Amino acid sequence: MATLSRSALIGLPWRAHAGRVVLVALLLAVAVGCSSAPAKTKPKVTSCGTSKTAANVPIHIEVTSGHVSCATALAIERKYAQAIRSGLAPGNGGGGPVKVSGWTCQGYATPIVLRTGKASKCVKDGTEILAILPTSA
Among 4, 12, 13, 119, whose CB has the most other CB atoms within 10 angstroms? Predict the structure, then answer.
């Protein structure tokens, strides 16, 4: 029967313990990695400048989802305001949906406008154009 030297006997438990520590650390890392929710990324918002509502109120125009040029976004918002001024929008003051060049535009209810500043949105194929009231600084 082979005998181990004193240094081999002292080093053996430490090595066995270190291996267990590494194993536990790896298991914890895997468990944390698997259980954490993926980081939510903010959608890219494109600021396109300003326009005015049908009531001549200044608004900021943003593309909040999808892809459309700012020129198109501003044109759609101008056409939406014109449709409301022309009486083409159902409901009082143009709250109902209006079709504008293939886009569906609709104003937000007053409580939402007051709470969020969002005046209206136009959507088409997953792309959203948002009209927002400017905030006073």
Answer: 119
Question: pTM score, two decimals?
Answer: 0.66
9: in domain = no
Residue 101, domain member (yes or no): yes
Give the residue carrying structure tokens 């939510």.
Answer: 40
Is residue 58 in a domain?
yes
Which residues form the domain of 75?
46-132
Q: What pLDDT digit, counting tens, does each position of 92-135 carry?
A: 555 679 999 999 999 999 899 999 999 999 999 999 999 999 98
Mean pLDDT of the chain: 79
